[in-house]
Amino acid sequence: MERLKIGIITQVRVTSTRLPAKVLLTVSGRSYLEHHLDRLARTGLPVIVATTTNFNDDLVVQLCTEDGFPVFRGSEDDVLSRFAGAAREHDLDGIVRVTSDCPLIDPEIVAAGVDRWRAENDPDLYISNCLERTYPRGMDFEIFSAARLYDAEQNATLTADREHVTSYLHQNRSGEMRLLNLPWSGGGSQYRLTLDTPDDWKLLDVLFENFDADQLNCAQLVKILDEHPELATLNAHIEQKKLGE
């Protein structure tokens, strides 16, 4: 059987509301976006950046081009169509969806998810590690077939479904999806290793500068936060934005 072509698509835009241009902030000599892309590249899968046609994102395109990552530009608000365009342009059979505010995403965890999705060999299967929260925020991925992405692109009418890409799939609006959550027993689900607010930035800065976080996996990062509760409190109060906000 022909091996399916699976690629990682990460969404990026610099007009984020809570911390504008957050992925272009730098730490340890590189932007947070580059740390994110470096980690994804370690999976051995193609990594595609899906950004917007907004001129503010020209900087994203420039940075990714210099680092050798392909970029697809599409709608700022209809992120579902942007993902579908990126998948088509790169002729993907399967898509790993991640978001660019995860500079410490663990490539081994993502790769294991892809192995599982391949093994199941079911185009109607949606696999994620965040249907139920067992990982720290910042480790999230979702995997689904291009066929299901194109079906959502064609049939999703709710604004939230267009903006959040996968809600049409994981809410099973088609009635044809099989959902599978891959849980984690390593703890740390209360922690935020994501870059969404100034307080998240404070924590990540400390982890990169003082603990060489770019070299650590999820378990090692959780261990640091377990051993240094004063670090975890830097962003423990942040409320995650709800679907539709």
UniProtKB/TrEMBL annotation:
Alphabetical list of InterPro entries matching this protein: Cytidylyl_trans, Nucleotide-diphossugar_trans
Pfam families in UniProt: CTP_transf_3
Source organism superkingdom: Bacteria
A cellular-component GO term for this protein: cytosol
Protein's UniProt name: Spore coat polysaccharide biosynthesis protein SpsF
Organism of derivation: Kribbella jejuensis
